[in-house]
Amino acid sequence: MIWKIVLFILMCFVIITGISFPIVEHPQGWMQFPIIPGLGEKAKIIFFHVPTAWLSVLAFLMAMVYGIKYLRKKNLDDDAKSSASLQIGMVFCILATVTGSIWAKFNWGTFWNWDPRETSIFILLLIYGSLFALRSAIENEDKRARLSAVYSIIAFLTVPFFIFIMPRIMLGLHPGSLEIDPNTGKIVQGTSPVVDFKMNGNMRLVFFTSLIAFTILYFWMWKIRSQAIIIKENLSKKLI
Question: Stretch 54-59: mean pLDDT, rounded?
Answer without folding.
Answer: 94
